[in-house]
Specification:
The complex is a heterodimer. By secondary structure, chain A is α+β, with helices and mostly antiparallel strands. Chain A has 14 helices and twelve strands. In chain A, α2 links the parallel β3 and β4. Chain B has one domain. Helix content of chain B is 8%, strand content 40%. In chain B, β1 and β2 form a beta hairpin. At the A-B interface, α5, α6 and β6 of A face β4, β5 and β6 of B. β6 of chain A pairs antiparallel with β4 of chain B, so a sheet runs across the interface.
């Protein structure tokens, strides 16, 4: 921690629309891992650690066999959660490498929703044979997806702070605009206008279609090692300056204290304490957009602006392009590039540190990645240029 | 009709009789069957928490009982679902999901639906009271009384 570890290699598959991957999820995972290890200038036999999140399928023993990882000695996954623990996975790898439990840890996420079904259609067409657990409390009333849950937080946040629909629109517009520069982006060639945003159908108010990220197939991976070792490898290292998780109240529950929250106050507090710097020191930021609304909340909770100022903060093109006032989701993010559970945002942060983004910000010293908002625990990581 | 009579009469279920029912367990049985808004309360410190759990979040106590709430609440957030994500809800959209704070259980939010209101007309701040939809689970034969909400003052 505190800058001892770094990302030395990144890799990803081609990104596909949901259901269009020619490969199985496990094959996608193998492709991304191979590419990340190759990018790092390492051999697969150098990999001695594996970390993922929300992944009960592509298990380490199976990957070790398929990839020839003969010296695997560390494997872990974050406590069950979704894209909110994307940066917690970086934190786990950082901890393993910094403490010497492993030398080269690959962090990855693979998704093939054509093979395994979509998050947004839980239950399928067969119906719910009785709603148990948190579904009993929420599903009984038709609250069934992350969109519904995040819409309730967003509606309250907009109401309390006098924020208009345009603020949500601005997040979508920025992601789509930045995606137009990125050959990997699934939304490249499909620019979004303000008119098209407002004309799009509602999914759950206050979310239009374009407020909701698509579901995609693909995989992304990154190799974490010590900064010391990374300096001897071909790529410019992206130092893990800080990585933080904020454990909040239970999944699926609402309470007055956290209504209108994205569960990022704790994450911000821990991240900036660990990093020894603050929001003003960030040169470029990637925010996981499951939905646009929680991004606005996370921007505030991470300390970039006050809720009363967030609409101005995101408006008038302030998030668009490499010269933006606040360079944001420069690859297009979940909305514009692909939804690989946010791991594509980690790789984009590394590109910004290397200077190889298709929407490259000048003089990047600090690149922030914020994982999925609206669910606890949230997580975030701050990457730095090596000194 | 007195308020108690009104409640006893029951109201239609906003999502319809065909929509799935909660599977009853030790934590949710009282909430979905009592016919009174029933929330978990710590016997030792009287803290009310929702959803119920095995341990009191305020004092750590294990001795947990139930509060029969008067059932008066306030809409704290509302989201109008316009795209059905399940075929059984296709005829029910648009419907509103609301979060309701309960007057005699500070801090608690209960998820619900509002009876007899246009989804788009429901506002944060609306005063509501609990009403119940009767349902029978064909699989378990359990008789349910599902809490819903009715606007009493905008």
């Amino acid at each position: 921690m505190h800058g001892k570890a770094a990302i030395a290699g990144i890799g990803e598959t081609t990104y596909y629309k949901h259901g269009e991957s020619p490969h199985t999820e496990f094959q996608l995972a193998c492709i991304a891992i191979r590419r990340a290890v190759e990018d790092a200038g390492l051999a697969l036999t150098d990999v001695d650690g594996l970390v993922s999140f929300m992944d009960q399928r592509n298990v380490p023993v199976r990957l070790a066999r398929a990839l020839g990882l003969t010296e695997l000695r560390f494997a872990a996954t974050t406590w069950a959660a979704g894209g909110n623990s994307m940066a917690s996975a970086i934190q786990l790898a950082d901890a393993a490498v910094s403490s010497g439990h492993a030398r080269h840890v690959v962090v990855f996420r693979a998704l093939a929703q054509g093979q395994f079904g979509r998050f947004g259609q839980a239950g399928g067409s067969g119906g719910y044979a009785g709603l148990s657990g948190s579904l009993a409390w929420n599903g009984t009333y038709g609250m069934l997806t992350a969109a519904h849950q995040c819409a309730l937080h967003t509606a309250r946040f907009l109401h309390d702070h006098g924020i208009s629909q345009e603020a949500l629109c601005e997040i979508a517009l920025a992601c789509y605009a930045n995606a137009q520069r990125n050959p990997r982006a699934l939304r490249r060639g499909k620019p979004l206008t303000r008119e098209a945003y407002h004309a799009s159908r509602w999914i759950v108010k206050p979310f239009h279609l374009y407020d909701c990220c698509p579901e995609n197939d693909g995989a992304a991976a990154a190799v974490v090692t010590t900064l010391e070792r990374a300096r001897d490898l071909p790529q410019r290292p992206a130092t893990i300056v800080a990585a933080a998780t904020g454990i909040g109240p239970q999944y699926g529950a609402f309470d007055m204290q956290h209504l209108g929250s994205a569960f990022y106050r704790q994450v911000g507090k821990h991240l900036w304490e660990q990093a020894g710097c603050g929001p003003a020191d960030v040169d470029v930021a990637q925010f996981y957009e499951n939905f646009t609304g929680p991004v606005l909340i996370a921007l505030c909770e991470m300390g970039f602006c006050a809720p009363e100022g967030v609409e101005e903060f995101v408006s008038d093109g302030r998030l668009v392009g490499p010269d933006a006032a606040f360079p944001f989701n420069t690859s297009g993010g979940n909305l514009g590039e692909a939804y690989i559970h946010g791991f594509e945002l980690v790789n984009e942060s590394v590109r910004q540190i290397r200077g190889t983004s298709t929407c490259q910000v000048k003089k990047v010293e600090r690149a922030l990645v914020v994982a999925g908002p609206g669910y606890a625990p949230g997580s975030a990581a701050l990457f730095g240029a090596p000194s | 009709m007195t308020r108690a009579d009104d409640r006893a009469a029951g109201v239609p279920r906003v999502l319809g009789d065909a929509w799935s029912l909660p599977r009853l367990d030790a934590h949710n049985r009282a909430f979905f069957t009592a016919g009174v808004l029933t929330l978990q309360q710590c016997t030792a410190c009287e803290h009310v928490q929702h959803p119920p759990d095995d341990v009191c979040e305020a004092c750590g106590g294990f001795d947990l009982g139930w509060l029969a709430s008067a059932g008066d609440g306030r809409i704290e957030s509302v989201a109008v679902v316009t795209q059905a994500i399940h075929p059984a809800l296709a005829e029910r959209v648009p419907y509103a999901i609301v979060l309701v704070s309960v007057a005699d259980a500070p801090g608690v939010l209960v998820t619900g639906n509002v009876v007899g209101a246009e989804p788009d007309a429901i506002r944060i701040g609306d005063r509501v009271r609990v009403v119940f939809a009767d349902a029978r689970d064909p699989q378990s034969s359990a008789e349910l009384r599902i809490p819903q909400w009715e606007i009493v003052a905008a």
